[in-house]
Write a structure and sequence with these properties.
CATH topology: Rossmann fold
Strand content: 15-25%
CATH superfamily: NAD(P)-binding Rossmann-like Domain
Distance between the termini: 42 Å
Largest sheet: 7 strands, parallel
Strand order of the largest sheet: 3-2-1-4-5-6-9
Helix content: 40-55%
Oligomer: single chain
Bound molecules: NADP nicotinamide-adenine-dinucleotide phosphate
CATH class: Alpha Beta
Length: 257
């Protein structure tokens, strides 16, 4: 296991779920953090919590990854001590609605593709040149099992995560001679804010997603992220699929009751 002490880790989407759990896990491992998300109050709260608990440096910035110019500005104006980024965790993402395609709302498609695909591209494109120049670095993307298999009523979310899968693979090829690792961690059902966002705040629908099984929790995926990030430099975990035990595919979930 390689130490993360003093490394700089940039995480997108840290105000909830997997991003938040990963920020706490990296801080516990001694990494300095660049954190972003759109909800400024939650972002400040997390930065404060980390500062109280761990002796690491934090640079927290309100950022919508869909806004290319803001992403570029944010990366270009990093304080000197945060300029050298060792690990980028592309986590910010969402799904909107779970409807048959012909009954779905196109507004949700824009949001999903702009965040999961274009946002990930913008952030990666802004961060990569310095990694290429130094010939070191690690990009870790949070994909999904939806990037491996399509499921009904998920055309656009599945497409967005298939895109993440393809981007991860191509990027790994493009960076083959640059000593930069590119990994993807692809979870099944994780109980986070994801379903509340997907169902536009409908608590009952959100809860039903995880009904009758023990889902993964955000910390389980943070654990996987830390594992991937702490392998020896010559080891690149290309892809890690993580299910709860009661899930075997996008559509096969065993529920009690
Ligand atoms: N939960 C699951 O079952 C599951 C399964 C497979 C994959 N995933 C993937 O895991 C990742 C994290 O999701 P989660 O489950 O942890 O959901 P979550 O609890 O809803 O967290 C999503 C995070 O992304 C941020 N975010 C969303 N849009 C953003 C934007 N435009 N700019 C910046 N930040 C943005 C949100 O912060 P703000 O709203 O404050 O911006 C929030 O912090 C996503 O990529 C998701 O697709 C989740």
């Amino acid at each position: 296991m390689v130490s993360l002490k003093g490394k700089t880790v940039f995480i997108t989407g840290v105000t909830s779920g997997i991003g938040k759990a990963s920020a706490l896990a990296f801080a516990e491992a001694g990494a300095n953090l660049i954190l972003c998300a759109r909800r400024e109050d939650l972002l400040s709260k997390l930065a404060e919590e980390i500062k109280q608990k761990f002796d690491v440096k934090i640079h927290a910035v309100k950022l919508d990854v869909r806004k290319k110019n803001d992403v570029n500005k944010m990366v270009a104006s990093l304080p000197a001590e945060f300029i050298k980024i060792d690990i980028l965790l592309n986590n910010a993402g969402l799904g909107r609605g779970l409807n048959k395609f012909y009954e779905d709302n196109p507004d949700g498609w824009e949001e999903t593709i702009d965040t999961n695909v274009k946002g990930l591209l913008y952030v990666t494109y802004a961060v990569l040149p310095q990694m290429v120049e130094r010939q070191e670095g690690h990009i870790i993307n949070i994909g999904s099992i939806a990037g491996h298999e399509a499921y009904p009523k998920g055309a656009v979310y599945c497409a967005s995560k298939h895109a993440v899968n393809a981007i991860t693979k191509s990027l790994r090829m493009d960076l083959i001679d640059k000593n930069i690792r590119v990994s993807t961690i692809d979870p099944g059902l994780v109980e986070t804010g994801f379903s509340m966002v997907r169902f536009y705040g409908d608590e009952e629908k959100a809860k039903n997603t995880y009904k009758g099984l023990t889902p993964l929790i955000a910390e389980d995926i943070a654990d996987a992220v830390l594992f991937v990030a702490t392998r020896k430099p010559h080891v690149n975990i290309a892809q890690m699929v993580v299910f709860p035990t009661a899930q075997a595919s996008s559509t096969l979930v065993h529920r009690n009751g």
